[in-house]
Design goal:
24% strand, 35% helix, 240 residues, disordered N terminus
Length: 240
């Protein structure tokens, strides 16, 4: 993986887009294939809300899927733009806003392409459970840095490349418990916090925090913890 410019093209895997696009119709089913994502969502939202005043803030949700976090941010009063490259997911996301009445501006566009026209527009950017699914995570982070206003914050969640993450997120969640569809994750694409920190520095972003995100299947819920060897959250700021 390399760090490219924000104008980098084709920073996606069609197989990954197809895989998640196939889940679109059940994305909002809390007992469906994205059950774990529903459980993670309140903890992710809380992590962001603890660090950004959401009401009136311009927020970009990168790799938004069908809008779980996007709608949650908008319900808190944020002005939300949400982007993804899977047409099926954007379609379901837009349909869900008709049911929920929550306003989100969904767009079928990459972060790199958006950065070409929307530099320094957003107060905060979320990029959750997405970096481990693209060929060049550094390019996404560089685009996010361009899109952020000075003083803005970037929030990332991803999986650490450790034996514990392999055991829990792949073997346990996908093959034993069936919490996630088989093939959701590839261990080689998991990201160590040190690697994330290197890409953030290359994008001139300052890492403020790294915290663990623990999923507890026995209560189908998640919480922010200190342990970072499986899922983790990170917050970085763009200097003034």
């Amino acid at each position: 993986m390399t760090t490219s410019s924000p104008s980098s093209e084709n920073n996606f895997s069609q197989a990954e887009l197809d895989k998640f696009g196939a889940l679109a119709n059940r994305w909002w089913d809390p007992q469906g294939p994205q059950k774990a994502l529903h459980a993670l969502n309140p903890a992710r939202l809380g992590y962001v809300a603890d660090r950004v005043m959401l009401r009136g803030a311009k927020i970009l949700d990168v790799g938004c899927g069908a809008g779980l976090l996007s709608e949650s941010l908008a319900r808190e009063g944020a002005i939300v733009t949400a982007i993804d490259l899977a047409p099926e997911l954007i379609k379901v996301a837009n349909l869900h806003t008709l049911e929920s009445g929550v306003e989100v501006d969904y767009q079928l566009i990459s972060a790199e392409a958006l950065a070409e026209t929307q530099a320094c527009r957003f107060d905060a950017i979320t990029c959750m459970e997405m970096l481990e699914h693209v060929p060049d995570p550094g390019s996404i982070l560089l685009a996010c840095a361009t899109l952020l206003k000075p003083g803005g914050r970037l929030f990332v969640s991803t999986l650490n490349r450790t034996p514990a993450a392999f055991a829990l997120a792949i073997v346990g969640a996908e093959y034993i418990a069936g919490i996630l569809p088989k093939g959701t994750h590839q261990y080689r694409e998991f990201i160590k916090p040190s690697e994330l920190a290197t890409w953030l520095r290359a994008a001139n972003l300052e890492l403020e925090d790294v915290s663990g995100l623990m999923y507890e299947p026995w209560r189908n819920a998640a919480r922010v913890v200190s342990r970072t060897d499986v899922n983790y959250l990170a917050c970085a700021v763009k200097p003034e």
